């Protein structure tokens, strides 16, 4: 019998598993690496976050990814080579983290690799007549990761979600539900990454069919792209200072919000394929604002991101929602964006996931570690109902180290 199958069966029977969660989002800032000890599975899951770091992407690495990122046409040869190269590079990053943490690879049970999303194609967005289905693509070959690190690797989580009728995103609902449900309050877990999304959690013990997760529109993707265009030495607007110095333009903001995505039913998914620099430029042309100063442009885009979230929250919970909202992702460090959210959702209480004992920057990597833990030791869970139903499937493909 394959010794790795024996090992996998042993892992499933253990009371806990040590899992490295890897996440790189659409912001392309780096690879989040979370070393987790996960006790149990399902609603009994308990997390110990042993180590966490973000390994920054170099300018060259970001440049390589952007050659295919959210582009409808790319070189097939380049895409193929990048897939293998990213897997090996992520493996090198993991190995360096383990050496720094003085943790032997043999002491790690699993790697959970999200991969690098380069194209997200839900049917409502691509509307290709020959392909009436959802699809998504993450690069970073997990076989390279497994062989390079010597650790069993679980990857391609989104593909099973798509195959079972989902859109492949957002997947946070599973981990949020297992780790962060509360018997005392209903919660909204808001991730302000390149694309913003939230998970709604009723009080623990209530019907899991009311849980759902949805994208709301751009989070940081247009903000970061605009900073790179107008301030080439900067990667992002640190602390929202540039946006705070500007004034939002009402005409441009209305034009940006004038898209069917914002009126479509929840849940829904999107990506930088839609909310791109081209989308912004077209909105500027239609609103006669091509000459708008960069600070005013960033102020407008901050309002755009905040209103996308606020509209989705009101769409789901009424005109005056009163919820506890816990924020994670890069936007959690942007006080200008957080102030706009508080202004548009005055009845809600805001904090970061640090208040729940989970480091905001680590949350996404941790959630994929939870998915790998469930793939090996858990039982598929179905969340939501109707169009909001999240398929009850076991997500993740297994790559052996040898």
From TrEMBL:
Listed GO MF terms: ATP binding; kinase activity; phosphotransferase activity, alcohol group as acceptor
Reactions performed catalytically: 1,6-anhydro-N-acetyl-beta-muramate + ATP + H2O = N-acetyl-D-muramate 6-phosphate + ADP + H(+)
Binding site for ATP: 25-32
Reported function: Catalyzes the specific phosphorylation of 1,6-anhydro-N-acetylmuramic acid (anhMurNAc) with the simultaneous cleavage of the 1,6-anhydro ring, generating MurNAc-6-P. Is required for the utilization of anhMurNAc either imported from the medium or derived from its own cell wall murein, and thus plays a role in cell wall recycling.
Gene3D superfamilies in the cross-refs: 3.30.420.40
Pfam families associated with the record: AnmK (PF03702)
Gene field: anmK
Domain of life: Bacteria
Biological processes per GO annotation: 1,6-anhydro-N-acetyl-beta-muramic acid catabolic process; amino sugar metabolic process; peptidoglycan turnover
Top-level class of the enzyme under EC nomenclature: transferase
Similarity remark: Belongs to the anhydro-N-acetylmuramic acid kinase family.
Listed name of the protein: Anhydro-N-acetylmuramic acid kinase
Pathway(s) per entry: Amino-sugar metabolism; 1,6-anhydro-N-acetylmuramate degradation; Cell wall biogenesis; peptidoglycan recycling
EC number: 2.7.1.170
Keywords: ATP-binding, Carbohydrate metabolism, Kinase, Nucleotide-binding, Transferase
SUPFAM superfamilies, per the entry: Actin-like ATPase domain (SSF53067)
HAMAP family (alphabetical): AnhMurNAc_kinase (MF_01270)
